[in-house]
Amino acid sequence: MNPSFIPIAAPVLNGNEKAYVNDCLDTGWISSNGKYIARFEKEFAAYCGVGHAVACCNGTVALHVALLALGIGPGDEVIVPTITFVATANAVHYVGATPVFADSDRATWNLDPADVARKITARTKAIIAVHLYGQPADMDALATLAKKHGLSLVEDAAEAHGALYRGRRAGSLGDVATFSFYGNKNLTTGEGGMCVTNDGPLREKMRQLCWQGMDPVRRYWFPVVGYNYRMTNIAAALGVAQLERLEWHLARRREVFALYKERLSDVVEWQPEAEWANHACWMFTALLAPKFDRDAVGTALLAKGVETRPVFPPMHLLPTYAHLTAPGSLPVGEDLSRRGLNLPTGAHLSREDVERVCASLRSVLEQNA
What we know:
The model has no long low-confidence stretch (mean pLDDT about 95). The chain has helices at about 15-25, 35-50, 60-70, 85-95, 115-120, 140-150, 200-210, 235-245, 245-265, 295-305, 330-340, 350-365; strands at about 50-55, 75-80, 100, 125-130, 150-155, 165, 170, 175-180, 195, 270, 275-280, 285, 310, 340. The protein contains twelve helices and 14 strands. The strands form three sheets. Strands 1-9-8-5-4-2-3 form a seven-stranded mixed beta sheet, with helices on both faces. The chain has a four-stranded antiparallel beta sheet with strand order 10-12-14-13. By secondary structure, it is of the alpha/beta class. The chain is about 40% helix and about 15% strand.
């Protein structure tokens, strides 16, 4: 990689990753059996403060099996935020249900509980709360709605490893939570995912679905249709090593966030951190003034060797889902998407890197003012 290029994200593997992976290679346990899978599940569940975890091959399939295990299917509706990665909506589509998009809360950029309340119908079966960029959603308000209407509450915590909501870990706040361990996450296994829950029977359903539907007692007997969604022992070995140093990764990310806020406070806004939350600092997002062309700013920064990416496009404006919700009907989400720009974030960044990103952004904004 060009040393003058600052990527939006990069993994940092500075713990026991190599030792644990070599142990898999030396012992031959490289596929979907091995000691690291059970260890990763147990230790990650404990970290989140829940009783059970099921490792799987990525965060999208984690959402898929969670919804299947909850009994979501054709004819059902699931409320999801319009600002999220497309996997959140796609997983609803996979089970044959309909995603119903709700607007963002300006105070957190997450699901607006008031808009969620307006979207609940007789067909609604679940709410998926996404902890966007590491900021926890307002889970008490959403849990109240879920309880009132008899709905399942799912946390899409793909971006929120280590986040806290009123002192409780992301992953422990709903009926089930799902995580991604993609290469740009706070904790990475390259690819990988996890479902976590306090519900033992739900855990057994998710495990069975990830293991081709095989009966947990009678080997090679398949009473239900399942999927090959298992995590490899090598991936789990990476996860165990990453989890050992997760607090270090989070501390480094907080340092990056703090420096961005210090250097950019007079030129951009950013995602607020609610008083009841501890942001996981996955991705620092600059909210540009409306006069700027966000995409043009990103292009100019790339020319200076700084990689950025736009805030997720609203799901209700994507071609696959545009027939469900009228453009302009979710104005907060559309505004955040139009103006939001993710800046490089992660433990891979030096102070000099962050200073350069800030100087480059200030220069581009001054030139386009």
